[in-house]
Protein backbone atom coordinates (compact mmCIF):
# COMPACT_ATOMS: atom_id res chain seq x y z
CA UNK A 1 0.00 0.00 0.00
CA UNK A 2 1.40 3.41 -0.98
CA UNK A 3 2.00 6.11 1.66
CA UNK A 4 -0.77 8.15 0.01
CA UNK A 5 -3.31 5.40 0.77
CA UNK A 6 -1.98 4.27 4.16
CA UNK A 7 -4.07 6.73 6.22
CA UNK A 8 -7.25 5.21 4.73
CA UNK A 9 -6.33 1.63 5.61
CA UNK A 10 -9.34 0.99 7.85
CA UNK A 11 -11.91 1.83 5.20
CA UNK A 12 -9.89 0.15 2.43
CA UNK A 13 -10.49 -3.10 4.34
CA UNK A 14 -14.25 -2.82 3.72
CA UNK A 15 -15.76 -5.26 1.19
CA UNK A 16 -16.38 -3.53 -2.14
CA UNK A 17 -14.03 -0.68 -1.25
CA UNK A 18 -10.36 -1.66 -1.49
CA UNK A 19 -7.50 0.36 -2.89
CA UNK A 20 -9.32 0.92 -6.18
CA UNK A 21 -12.29 2.42 -4.36
CA UNK A 22 -10.00 4.72 -2.42
CA UNK A 23 -8.29 5.87 -5.61
CA UNK A 24 -11.70 6.69 -7.07
CA UNK A 25 -12.46 8.80 -4.00
CA UNK A 26 -9.18 10.67 -4.25
CA UNK A 27 -9.95 11.43 -7.90
CA UNK A 28 -13.50 12.67 -7.21
CA UNK A 29 -15.05 16.11 -6.76
CA UNK A 30 -17.97 16.63 -4.41
CA UNK A 31 -20.02 19.80 -4.03
CA UNK A 32 -21.41 20.42 -0.54
CA UNK A 33 -24.43 22.71 -0.55
CA UNK A 34 -24.09 24.65 2.69
CA UNK A 35 -21.58 24.36 5.50
CA UNK A 36 -23.83 24.66 8.54
CA UNK A 37 -25.22 21.90 10.74
CA UNK A 38 -25.35 19.15 8.13
CA UNK A 39 -22.73 20.57 5.80
CA UNK A 40 -19.95 21.02 8.35
CA UNK A 41 -20.13 17.37 9.42
CA UNK A 42 -20.42 16.23 5.79
CA UNK A 43 -17.28 18.17 4.88
CA UNK A 44 -15.44 16.81 7.92
CA UNK A 45 -16.31 13.15 7.33
CA UNK A 46 -15.65 13.27 3.60
CA UNK A 47 -12.31 15.00 4.10
CA UNK A 48 -11.27 12.26 6.51
CA UNK A 49 -12.49 9.63 4.02
CA UNK A 50 -10.28 11.11 1.30
CA UNK A 51 -12.64 12.64 -1.24
CA UNK A 52 -10.00 14.43 -3.31
CA UNK A 53 -11.71 17.75 -4.01
CA UNK A 54 -14.37 19.26 -1.79
CA UNK A 55 -16.18 22.38 -2.97
CA UNK A 56 -18.15 23.98 -0.13
CA UNK A 57 -20.62 26.78 -0.87
CA UNK A 58 -22.09 28.69 2.05
CA UNK A 59 -23.47 32.22 2.35
CA UNK A 60 -23.25 32.62 6.11
CA UNK A 61 -20.96 33.56 8.98
CA UNK A 62 -20.16 31.55 12.11
CA UNK A 63 -22.32 32.60 15.09
CA UNK A 64 -22.40 31.46 18.70
CA UNK A 65 -25.62 29.45 18.37
CA UNK A 66 -23.99 27.39 15.59
CA UNK A 67 -21.52 25.77 17.98
CA UNK A 68 -24.19 23.53 19.53
CA UNK A 69 -24.15 21.34 16.40
CA UNK A 70 -21.72 22.64 13.75
CA UNK A 71 -18.60 20.63 14.42
CA UNK A 72 -15.95 22.45 12.37
CA UNK A 73 -16.17 25.77 14.20
CA UNK A 74 -15.12 27.25 17.54
CA UNK A 75 -15.47 30.45 19.55
CA UNK A 76 -12.61 32.14 17.74
CA UNK A 77 -14.48 31.79 14.44
CA UNK A 78 -17.43 33.48 16.12
CA UNK A 79 -15.29 36.36 17.41
CA UNK A 80 -13.77 36.84 13.96
CA UNK A 81 -17.18 36.64 12.21
CA UNK A 82 -15.55 34.10 9.91
CA UNK A 83 -17.46 32.88 6.83
CA UNK A 84 -18.35 29.23 7.39
CA UNK A 85 -16.85 28.00 4.12
CA UNK A 86 -13.49 29.63 4.87
CA UNK A 87 -13.49 28.48 8.51
CA UNK A 88 -14.15 24.94 7.27
CA UNK A 89 -11.24 25.13 4.81
CA UNK A 90 -8.84 26.23 7.53
CA UNK A 91 -9.96 23.45 9.85
CA UNK A 92 -9.81 20.74 7.18
CA UNK A 93 -6.30 21.84 6.16
CA UNK A 94 -5.20 20.63 9.60
CA UNK A 95 -7.10 17.34 9.26
CA UNK A 96 -6.13 16.14 5.77
CA UNK A 97 -3.54 18.04 3.75
CA UNK A 98 -3.85 15.55 0.86
CA UNK A 99 -7.16 16.91 -0.37
CA UNK A 100 -8.22 20.17 -1.97
CA UNK A 101 -10.94 22.15 -0.18
CA UNK A 102 -12.44 24.99 -2.20
CA UNK A 103 -14.42 27.49 -0.06
CA UNK A 104 -17.02 29.60 -1.85
CA UNK A 105 -18.58 32.37 0.25
CA UNK A 106 -21.75 32.95 -1.73
CA UNK A 107 -25.47 32.32 -1.92
CA UNK A 108 -26.14 29.36 -4.20
CA UNK A 109 -28.71 30.41 -6.80
CA UNK A 110 -29.73 29.92 -10.42
CA UNK A 111 -27.15 32.46 -11.62
CA UNK A 112 -24.11 30.70 -10.19
CA UNK A 113 -24.82 26.99 -9.63
CA UNK A 114 -23.59 26.01 -13.09
CA UNK A 115 -20.27 27.70 -12.29
CA UNK A 116 -19.90 26.42 -8.73
CA UNK A 117 -20.94 22.85 -9.58
CA UNK A 118 -18.73 22.51 -12.67
CA UNK A 119 -16.88 19.20 -12.55
CA UNK A 120 -18.76 17.83 -9.53
CA UNK A 121 -19.35 14.08 -9.41
CA UNK A 122 -22.01 14.38 -6.71
CA UNK A 123 -24.06 17.09 -4.96
CA UNK A 124 -24.65 16.70 -1.24
CA UNK A 125 -27.37 18.56 0.66
CA UNK A 126 -26.37 20.64 3.66
CA UNK A 127 -28.90 23.46 3.26
CA UNK A 128 -31.89 24.50 5.36
CA UNK A 129 -34.52 25.38 2.74
CA UNK A 130 -36.40 23.63 -0.04
CA UNK A 131 -35.87 26.39 -2.59
CA UNK A 132 -32.14 25.64 -2.76
CA UNK A 133 -32.87 21.91 -2.72
CA UNK A 134 -35.15 22.26 -5.75
CA UNK A 135 -32.39 24.24 -7.46
CA UNK A 136 -29.87 21.48 -6.78
CA UNK A 137 -32.38 18.85 -7.89
CA UNK A 138 -32.95 20.68 -11.18
CA UNK A 139 -29.19 20.83 -11.80
CA UNK A 140 -28.72 17.16 -10.89
CA UNK A 141 -31.51 15.96 -13.17
CA UNK A 142 -30.49 18.19 -16.07
CA UNK A 143 -26.88 16.99 -15.96
CA UNK A 144 -27.43 13.43 -14.72
CA UNK A 145 -25.44 13.92 -11.52
CA UNK A 146 -26.29 12.10 -8.26
CA UNK A 147 -27.77 14.31 -5.54
CA UNK A 148 -27.87 13.20 -1.90
CA UNK A 149 -30.84 14.89 -0.21
CA UNK A 150 -30.93 15.39 3.55
CA UNK A 151 -32.64 17.55 6.14
CA UNK A 152 -32.99 17.71 9.91
CA UNK A 153 -35.05 19.84 12.26
CA UNK A 154 -36.05 19.27 15.88
CA UNK A 155 -35.19 15.62 16.55
CA UNK A 156 -36.42 14.49 13.13
CA UNK A 157 -34.47 13.94 9.95
CA UNK A 158 -34.76 12.47 6.46
CA UNK A 159 -32.31 11.53 3.71
CA UNK A 160 -32.43 9.95 0.27
CA UNK A 161 -29.92 9.30 -2.52
CA UNK A 162 -31.25 10.61 -5.86
CA UNK A 163 -29.81 8.87 -8.93
CA UNK A 164 -31.35 10.69 -11.90
CA UNK A 165 -33.08 8.91 -14.77
CA UNK A 166 -31.34 11.26 -17.19
CA UNK A 167 -28.32 10.02 -19.13
CA UNK A 168 -24.95 11.46 -18.20
CA UNK A 169 -21.26 11.31 -19.01
CA UNK A 170 -20.60 11.92 -15.33
CA UNK A 171 -18.05 9.34 -14.17
CA UNK A 172 -19.85 8.65 -10.90
CA UNK A 173 -23.23 7.93 -12.48
CA UNK A 174 -23.08 6.12 -15.79
CA UNK A 175 -26.65 5.20 -16.61
CA UNK A 176 -29.27 5.15 -19.31
CA UNK A 177 -32.73 6.68 -19.09
CA UNK A 178 -34.98 4.42 -17.00
CA UNK A 179 -32.02 2.42 -15.71
CA UNK A 180 -33.19 0.08 -12.92
CA UNK A 181 -30.82 1.78 -10.47
CA UNK A 182 -32.31 5.21 -11.09
CA UNK A 183 -34.59 6.78 -8.49
CA UNK A 184 -37.35 9.40 -8.26
CA UNK A 185 -36.05 12.97 -8.00
CA UNK A 186 -36.89 15.39 -5.20
CA UNK A 187 -39.84 16.91 -7.08
CA UNK A 188 -41.25 13.43 -7.68
CA UNK A 189 -41.41 13.17 -3.89
CA UNK A 190 -42.36 16.78 -3.04
CA UNK A 191 -43.79 18.69 -5.99
CA UNK A 192 -44.15 21.77 -3.78
CA UNK A 193 -42.60 22.89 -0.49
CA UNK A 194 -44.23 20.71 2.19
CA UNK A 195 -47.06 22.70 3.77
CA UNK A 196 -46.49 23.73 7.38
CA UNK A 197 -42.91 22.47 7.35
CA UNK A 198 -41.24 22.99 10.71
CA UNK A 199 -38.07 25.06 10.97
CA UNK A 200 -35.35 25.36 13.59
CA UNK A 201 -36.91 28.76 14.42
CA UNK A 202 -40.09 27.07 15.59
CA UNK A 203 -39.00 23.71 17.01
CA UNK A 204 -35.23 23.97 17.49
CA UNK A 205 -32.76 21.28 16.42
CA UNK A 206 -31.05 18.39 18.21
CA UNK A 207 -27.40 17.87 17.30
CA UNK A 208 -27.57 14.02 17.26
CA UNK A 209 -30.39 14.20 14.69
CA UNK A 210 -28.17 16.33 12.48
CA UNK A 211 -25.25 13.94 12.95
CA UNK A 212 -27.40 10.91 12.09
CA UNK A 213 -28.61 12.39 8.81
CA UNK A 214 -25.21 13.81 7.84
CA UNK A 215 -23.55 10.44 8.47
CA UNK A 216 -26.13 8.69 6.28
CA UNK A 217 -25.56 11.24 3.51
CA UNK A 218 -21.80 10.70 3.64
CA UNK A 219 -22.21 6.91 3.52
CA UNK A 220 -24.38 7.22 0.40
CA UNK A 221 -21.84 9.61 -1.12
CA UNK A 222 -19.02 7.13 -0.60
CA UNK A 223 -21.07 4.38 -2.27
CA UNK A 224 -21.72 6.63 -5.26
CA UNK A 225 -18.12 7.80 -5.65
CA UNK A 226 -16.71 4.26 -5.39
CA UNK A 227 -19.35 3.09 -7.96
CA UNK A 228 -21.06 0.75 -5.47
CA UNK A 229 -24.49 1.63 -6.84
CA UNK A 230 -25.95 -1.72 -5.85
CA UNK A 231 -25.35 -0.73 -2.21
CA UNK A 232 -27.10 2.66 -2.43
CA UNK A 233 -30.16 2.63 -0.17
CA UNK A 234 -33.33 2.44 -2.34
CA UNK A 235 -35.58 3.84 0.38
CA UNK A 236 -35.89 7.20 2.14
CA UNK A 237 -34.54 7.22 5.67
CA UNK A 238 -36.75 8.89 8.31
CA UNK A 239 -35.62 9.12 11.93
CA UNK A 240 -37.14 10.64 15.06
CA UNK A 241 -34.59 10.40 17.84
CA UNK A 242 -36.91 11.86 20.48
CA UNK A 243 -39.71 9.36 19.85
CA UNK A 244 -37.31 6.50 19.06
CA UNK A 245 -38.46 5.66 15.54
CA UNK A 246 -36.49 4.74 12.43
CA UNK A 247 -38.47 4.16 9.24
CA UNK A 248 -37.42 3.33 5.68
CA UNK A 249 -40.04 4.64 3.24
CA UNK A 250 -40.47 2.92 -0.12
CA UNK A 251 -40.60 5.73 -2.68
CA UNK A 252 -39.52 3.94 -5.87
CA UNK A 253 -43.01 4.15 -7.44
CA UNK A 254 -43.07 7.95 -7.22
CA UNK A 255 -41.40 8.30 -10.63
CA UNK A 256 -43.65 5.85 -12.51
CA UNK A 257 -46.88 6.90 -10.80
CA UNK A 258 -46.29 10.65 -10.93
CA UNK A 259 -46.00 13.30 -13.62
CA UNK A 260 -42.90 15.12 -12.40
CA UNK A 261 -42.33 18.46 -14.16
CA UNK A 262 -38.57 18.12 -13.63
CA UNK A 263 -37.41 14.61 -14.51
CA UNK A 264 -40.30 13.65 -16.81
CA UNK A 265 -40.90 16.93 -18.65
CA UNK A 266 -37.50 18.62 -18.40
CA UNK A 267 -38.90 21.76 -16.79
CA UNK A 268 -36.09 23.24 -14.68
CA UNK A 269 -37.99 26.17 -13.18
CA UNK A 270 -35.62 26.79 -10.27
CA UNK A 271 -32.50 26.40 -12.40
CA UNK A 272 -33.89 28.83 -14.99
CA UNK A 273 -34.92 31.33 -12.30
CA UNK A 274 -38.61 31.36 -13.15
CA UNK A 275 -39.34 30.18 -9.61
CA UNK A 276 -37.59 31.26 -6.46
CA UNK A 277 -36.92 34.45 -4.60
CA UNK A 278 -34.11 36.93 -4.03
CA UNK A 279 -35.16 37.31 -0.41
CA UNK A 280 -34.62 34.54 2.15
CA UNK A 281 -35.44 34.45 5.86
CA UNK A 282 -32.56 32.58 7.51
CA UNK A 283 -33.45 29.68 9.76
CA UNK A 284 -32.91 30.38 13.45
CA UNK A 285 -31.15 33.67 12.81
CA UNK A 286 -33.78 36.46 13.00
CA UNK A 287 -32.16 37.61 9.78
CA UNK A 288 -33.01 38.11 6.12
CA UNK A 289 -30.71 37.62 3.15
CA UNK A 290 -31.04 39.92 0.12
CA UNK A 291 -29.57 39.21 -3.30
CA UNK A 292 -29.49 41.26 -6.48
CA UNK A 293 -31.05 40.14 -9.74
CA UNK A 294 -27.51 40.24 -11.13
CA UNK A 295 -24.31 39.84 -9.14
CA UNK A 296 -22.56 43.22 -9.11
CA UNK A 297 -19.30 44.07 -7.38
CA UNK A 298 -19.65 46.72 -4.68
CA UNK A 299 -17.02 48.92 -3.09
CA UNK A 300 -16.87 47.60 0.47
CA UNK A 301 -14.38 50.27 1.55
CA UNK A 302 -16.71 53.06 0.41
CA UNK A 303 -19.73 51.46 2.06
CA UNK A 304 -17.75 50.95 5.28
CA UNK A 305 -16.77 54.63 5.29
CA UNK A 306 -20.40 55.70 5.02
CA UNK A 307 -21.64 53.26 7.65
CA UNK A 308 -19.06 54.31 10.26
CA UNK A 309 -21.16 57.43 10.80
CA UNK A 310 -23.96 55.18 12.06
CA UNK A 311 -22.14 52.66 14.25
CA UNK A 312 -19.34 50.13 14.63
CA UNK A 313 -18.00 48.67 11.37
CA UNK A 314 -15.66 45.70 10.89
CA UNK A 315 -14.40 45.26 7.31
CA UNK A 316 -12.33 42.45 5.82
CA UNK A 317 -11.61 40.63 2.58
CA UNK A 318 -14.76 38.52 2.74
CA UNK A 319 -17.34 41.04 3.89
CA UNK A 320 -18.07 44.05 6.09
CA UNK A 321 -20.30 44.04 9.15
CA UNK A 322 -21.92 47.14 10.60
CA UNK A 323 -23.97 47.62 13.77
CA UNK A 324 -26.61 50.32 13.41
CA UNK A 325 -29.65 51.64 15.25
CA UNK A 326 -32.70 52.58 13.21
CA UNK A 327 -35.87 54.00 14.77
CA UNK A 328 -34.57 52.94 18.17
CA UNK A 329 -34.00 49.29 17.19
CA UNK A 330 -30.58 47.62 16.80
CA UNK A 331 -29.64 45.88 13.54
CA UNK A 332 -26.51 44.39 12.03
CA UNK A 333 -25.74 44.50 8.32
CA UNK A 334 -23.33 42.03 6.69
CA UNK A 335 -22.46 43.05 3.12
CA UNK A 336 -20.48 40.85 0.70
CA UNK A 337 -18.38 41.84 -2.35
CA UNK A 338 -21.07 40.77 -4.85
CA UNK A 339 -23.71 43.01 -3.23
CA UNK A 340 -25.40 40.23 -1.28
CA UNK A 341 -26.35 41.24 2.26
CA UNK A 342 -27.66 39.67 5.46
CA UNK A 343 -29.75 41.96 7.65
CA UNK A 344 -29.72 40.75 11.26
CA UNK A 345 -32.39 41.83 13.74
CA UNK A 346 -35.51 41.21 11.67
CA UNK A 347 -37.30 38.35 9.97
CA UNK A 348 -39.40 40.76 7.86
CA UNK A 349 -38.27 41.03 4.23
CA UNK A 350 -39.80 44.48 3.80
CA UNK A 351 -37.83 45.88 6.76
CA UNK A 352 -34.63 44.26 5.50
CA UNK A 353 -35.04 45.75 2.02
CA UNK A 354 -35.74 49.17 3.53
CA UNK A 355 -32.61 49.05 5.70
CA UNK A 356 -30.48 47.93 2.76
CA UNK A 357 -31.73 50.75 0.56
CA UNK A 358 -31.25 53.28 3.34
CA UNK A 359 -27.76 52.35 4.51
CA UNK A 360 -26.14 50.51 1.56
CA UNK A 361 -27.99 51.80 -1.48
CA UNK A 362 -29.87 50.37 -4.41
What does this molecule look like?
The mean pLDDT is 88. The chain is globular, with a radius of gyration of 21 Å. The protein starts with a helix and ends with a helix. The strands form two sheets. It has an eight-stranded mixed beta sheet with strand order 3-2-1-4-5-6-7-8, sandwiched between helices. Strands 9-10-14-13-12-11 form a six-stranded antiparallel beta sheet, covered by helices on one side. Helix 4 (37-49) links the parallel strand 1 and strand 2. The protein has helices spanning 3-6, 9-12, 18-26, 37-49, 75-79, 84-93, 113-116, 130-143, 186-189, 200-203, 207-225, 253-257, 269-272, 300-307, 349-359, and strands at residues 29-33, 53-58, 100-105, 122-125, 147-153, 156-162, 235-240, 245-250, 279-282, 287-290, 313-315, 320-326, 329-335, 341-344. With 362 residues, it is α/β, with parallel strands linked by helices. The longest helix is centred in the middle third of the chain and has 19 residues, at 207-225. The chain contains 15 helices and 14 strands. Helix 4 packs across helix 11. 33% of the residues lie in helices and 21% in strands.
Amino acid sequence: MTPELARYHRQILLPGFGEEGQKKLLGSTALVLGCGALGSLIVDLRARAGVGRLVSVDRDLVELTNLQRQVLFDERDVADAMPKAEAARRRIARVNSQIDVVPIVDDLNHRNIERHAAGADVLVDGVDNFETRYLANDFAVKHGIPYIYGGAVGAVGAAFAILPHTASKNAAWETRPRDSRATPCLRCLFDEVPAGAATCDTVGVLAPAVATIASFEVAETLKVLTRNFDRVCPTMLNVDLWNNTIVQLKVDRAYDDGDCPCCKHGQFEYLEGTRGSGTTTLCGRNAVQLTHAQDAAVDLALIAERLRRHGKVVAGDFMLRADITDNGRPYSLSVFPNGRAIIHGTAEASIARSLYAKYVGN
